[in-house]
Amino acid sequence: MRFMMLVKATPESETGRLPTTEELTTMGKYNEELVKAGILLAGEGLHPSTRGARVTFSAKGATVTDGPFTETKELVSGFWIIEVKSREEAIAWARRIPFKDGQVEVRQVASAEDFAPSDPTGELRAKEEALRAQVEAKARA
């Protein structure tokens, strides 16, 4: 099962402050643990919302709003994607993140099988799997 651990933004992370050497070292050790356990699929920090945009969709079309965004509690400042055996294991890894404060949301990533009722023939899942294979091949190249 794949899970995304979403790091919630804080007023401090929204300033664009870079982590200290100590914070980078501590986080690097945690990331090494994820890699050694063979569960890390991806993980990145995000720039503050001042450098972002929101695209909102309606019947009239898509509207783009440039950041910054005021509701910090609704923003994400980074993420990890891990592959583990259970929700409990994902939560256990989230609890080990070396934050002094903050919040991490743990969400399971949907798989093709989750959408099977909407695709009774399997044709759409096959197309999706082919696209994923192309992406993986490009990443290895």
Automatic annotation (TrEMBL):
Entry-linked SUPFAM superfamilies: Dimeric alpha+beta barrel
Highest taxon of the lineage: Bacteria
Disordered: annotated span: 110-130
Entry-linked Gene3D superfamilies: Dimeric alpha+beta barrel
Annotated ranges, domain YCII-related: 1-110
Pfam families, per database record: YCII
InterPro entries (alphabetical): Dimeric_a/b-barrel, YCII
Sequence similarity: Belongs to the YciI family.
Protein name (Swiss-Prot/TrEMBL): YciI family protein
Organism: Corallococcus caeni
